[in-house]
Amino acid sequence: MAKKSKKKQQQQPGGTPATVALTAAGVPFTVRSYDHDPSHPSYGEEAAEAMGVPPDRVFKTLVADVDGALTVAVVPVAGQLDLKALAAAVGGKRAVMADPALAERTTGYVRGGISPLGQRKRLPTVLDESAALHDTICVSAGRRGLEVELSPDDLTALTSATLAPIGRA
């Protein structure tokens, strides 16, 4: 049996810890890939443009330090993360962006490809409440040039996320 599972994971297109977690949970999702351009100034905006998806439906995954604890923030690529709102959403006082190397080590993903799903260490997660306005949203599938489209309800359930107004235009 173990060999069969392993083989199934290897055959899965774009098999990353994120897509493996989605498959294991039985959650419906669509993998969307595009050719990543390393010279593009914004990973998230590049993803929206390349996939032809409105930027308010493509969400970026950011890692912040809230009072000494790493916390994941998932916000639309069309806007920015409001650090004060993130801190308030998790009952903290102060938030700053996490050191990129620490974020990569902790999540197991590279910057520009950090997914809120299938992280090496499960971190508290806050999803911007605007996600609830859409039937589906896109988030990183765990590598640059690879996204997953899924319902915000499924993302919230799988990450135990809090919905809060943490994004700003």
UniProtKB/TrEMBL annotation:
InterPro entries: Prolyl-tRNA_editing_YbaK/EbsC (IPR004369), YbaK/aa-tRNA-synt-asso_dom_sf (IPR036754), YbaK/aa-tRNA-synth-assoc-dom (IPR007214). One of its GO terms (molecular function) is lyase activity. GO terms for biological process: translation. It comes from the Bacteria. Its EC number is 4.2.-.-. Keywords: Hydrolase, Lyase, Protein biosynthesis. Residues 1-20 are annotated as: Disordered. Residues 45-156 form the YbaK/aminoacyl-tRNA synthetase-associated domain. The keyword Protein biosynthesis applies. Belongs to the prolyl-tRNA editing family. YbaK/EbsC subfamily. This is Cys-tRNA(Pro)/Cys-tRNA(Cys) deacylase.
